[in-house]
Amino acid sequence: MVEGVHSCLLCAGRGWRCCEPSCRRAVAPGPHRAAAAGGSAVGRGRRHRYPAHVLRDLLRPTAIVSHLLVLTVVAACLVLGQWQVDRLQTVRDQNARATERMAEPPVDLAALAEPANTDAVDDAALEFRRVEVTGTFRPDEEVLQRNRQYRNQTGFHVLTPLELTDGGVVLVRRGWIPASLDQPPVAEAAPPPDTVTVVGVLERPVAQPSFGPQDPDEGRLERVFHTDTSRLDRQVDGRLFPMVLRIDAELDNPTEDQLPFPAGPPELDEGSHLSYAVQWHIFAVLALVTYAAWWWRRLTRGSDPDDGAAGGTPDAADAVGPGPDTPAMVRPARP
Description:
By secondary structure, the protein is an alpha/beta fold. It has a domain at 129-208 and 219-249. The chain contains ten helices and eight strands. The protein has helices at residues 9-14, 31-36, 41-58, 61-102, 109-112, 123-126, 229-232, 273-301, 305-308, 316-320; strands at residues 107-108, 130-137, 143-150, 153-164, 169-178, 196-203, 223-224, 240-249. The chain has a five-stranded mixed beta barrel with strand order 2-4-5-8-6.
């Protein structure tokens, strides 16, 4: 104990030094006390230092790299979202054009193209056009297309070549049959034997994909996955027209319960472009908000870096008090 300095029981128990009889434990006020007192020099200094501390953290090289990375991710999500919006608009335009074409009265196929001249066919211009053809079916060259749906049942579509009276052969999608009838020609769904006039909508052929199920490249096909007219042309007598005619009506209309059941008009849907566009824009917003929230928490959860270096909050020293080795403010001894 310092000569001339006395300690009260409370200060002596905590290792503090004080002066009797008043025992003033003079401890430097904490920053929170200074701020509560109306803005001391410490509080004013912190308010001036905090923006500089924020800018220093935000402009560090590693922080700049992370900013650029997040902005790149956000930009990529926005670009992909806009691409899906553009694809959606394209599909809507195509569907509107298809609906308009299917609403037109049927015209003779020979007025639009030469069925016998398969090299001069513009399938984009003829797709979804309603046409009328006259000829005789060839059931012995019939094929079945797999995985076709009708009233939630899986079966086949019957594809029967129609030999036109003015030359050429057109593959006609006649309708749906159950999966149990898997051997062409299907007697239960036999076409009319006489010359018929068929009205339908032209479809583009579907080529063999690079991935997924494919039809054999060799041999005669009885069941197919795709309406690849270039592949089926090898097993049809004559030049096959490079489009498929989806039947609308025959001269001898079948009864309601007679096979094959009509396939109906082509299904026009918008696909998943709208949901994908929404998802990409949501990803962009989530990335931006999450990154901003992370920085906000990082910059506000702690205080000034000078306080963090001390290993605690600014009020820690006030809450605990000076330790045994902490020098205390001592009133000088009276003479």
